[in-house]
């Protein structure tokens, strides 16, 4: 969802508290300093997990606390590409490799299929990444190239355009 909050200290935390109050799980927060309105407000992109039956309670809390919901329920990652990674993926910390993409806030690994033939053999994975924009996808692929080079992983890139 995208929220509009006042551009004053403490408002980001105040906007996130209702999500926690209704039992939602915050996955990603992007505080958009370049978003502004004539009302002196900022945009905040929030990806959450919340049971559908609690959504109306969340929207009511936002309204009560003066937080404007600009949109919700839309997928924000519109660009998708898949790559193949071949190497000692588990031994070189596959979680770290995925985290380097996910921590950007503008791209995330959404699917992974892993094949491991034997402990000492190289494994392979099809890794699907989604990003906010084409430019963000290019940055995410560049991060993955750098990580692959550092960890001596062969990266066959992108399978779709």
UniProtKB/TrEMBL annotation:
It comes from the Archaea. InterPro entries: ACT_ThrD-II-like. This is Amino acid-binding protein.
